[in-house]
Amino acid sequence: MITPTDPDYQQTKARLKKRTPLEPIFAELAAWVAARFGVTPVDFWYDLHMPDRTPRLEIIVRTDDEDTTLTEGEWRMSAARQAEVAQAFADLVAKHGLQAKYQTQSLFVYPGVFDDVARKEANESVSEKDIGALKRKLKNPELWEIVKQFDTVTFFFFTKEQAERNKTNGLLEKYAAAWGKLAAKHDDFGLFAQRGVTTYFDSKEVFDNEYGGNWYHYFK
Which residues, given as ranges, of the chain have pLDDT below 50? Predict the structure, then answer.
């Protein structure tokens, strides 16, 4: 899962909000993963990846730390660990007689982190109307724009000098708290109470001169 519109994220979000139990085969697989790796998945996502219809199994966990445990700090699970999970899944598929539903040969196994995407969704759900109201509330003539991106927010001042000065006079913490209250309204899982929205100060001067006034290049 990468974005809030991804079907695996939507499935897991609904499951967590409604506290819907896993299907028996996946409940057993979750118990196996917990016993083997010390991480308890909250969901799984199985699909056939196009164009060659490669079977894939996503192990969905809540945190980056759990993801790191599964991948042993690498960018993906090792071939050996994937093979272990694939065999455990194949055994359960056979046990439950679900061979027609799930292909297990050449199964690609990978982890997905739910909380990262949930943070993005909550932060990006802050409306332009609320952003405008916040700008008016802050009453800072040096503030040019407020821009949300994924799980961050950037307060843009007109000049570099203004951004640096306001960063050191206590406004960064104040503005981060003000934004946090807006984002918290959309935080269904209390994630920002654990770690607030990452907040930056920057300037229109930098945006124009170093990125050509282009948002794509700025956030790339």
Answer: none
Interval 6-39: pLDDT, tens: 999 999 999 999 999 999 999 999 999 999 999 9
Q: Contact at 8 Å (CB) between 24 and 129?
A: no
Residue 76 has a pLDDT of 93
Separation CA 178–CA 161 (nearest Å) = 22
Buried-state track 180-208, b at ≥16 Cβ within 10 A, e below 16: bebbbebbebebbeeebbebbbbbbbebe
Which pLDDT does position 73 carry in this prediction?
A: 93
Among all chains, which residue has been given the structure tokens 């109470």? 193
Query: In the numeric block, which tokens belong to residue 46?
Result: 């199985």
pTM exceeds cut of 0.85: yes
In the block, tokens 């995407």 appear at 117
Distance CA 170, CA 164 (A): 11
Q: Are 113 and 61 in contact (CB under 8 A)?
A: yes
Our CA dihedral for 165, 177, 63, 218, rounded to 10 degrees, sits at -40
